[in-house]
Specification:
alpha+beta; 4-stranded antiparallel sheet; 4 strands; 25% helix
Length: 119
């Protein structure tokens, strides 16, 4: 008997995220999470490795990072949000962050998040 899919999910892999490339993305969700973070100490115009390394870590995961004037953020499938948060915290602490503030918000959107390498 075939498993029925919830109407909120599609069953096909997305075939373009970094997790698909390593065989870990099994279902593209229509639900996404907005992950935003700020890392201290903050030095205007001169972010240290405690800021740049977390950005590099999630960029290497295939996530498009958006730099803003009050924080940094990205949009990811719900099943990858925890991995992104863990990578940010791990890299920030390893490189001298004194404070990491993270906000994760559920975004109802059927548009898939953009991964690095997409046009």
């Amino acid at each position: 008997m075939a498993r029925q899919q919830s109407p909120a999910r599609r069953s096909e892999p997305c075939h373009h995220c970094a997790w698909c490339a390593v065989g870990r993305c099994c279902v593209r969700s229509v639900f996404v999470q907005r992950v935003e973070f700020t890392i201290e100490p903050f030095v205007e115009g001169n972010p240290g490795p405690h800021v740049t390394e977390p950005i590099a870590a999630i960029s290497q995961m295939g996530v498009q990072v958006e730099l803003g004037p009050f924080g940094t953020g990205c949009t990811v499938d719900e099943q990858h949000a925890a991995e992104v948060v863990a990578a940010v915290v791990k890299a920030a602490i390893a490189h001298g962050a004194t404070h990491v503030n993270i906000d994760v918000a559920h975004v109802t959107d059927s548009t898939p998040p953009i991964s690095r390498g997409e046009a």
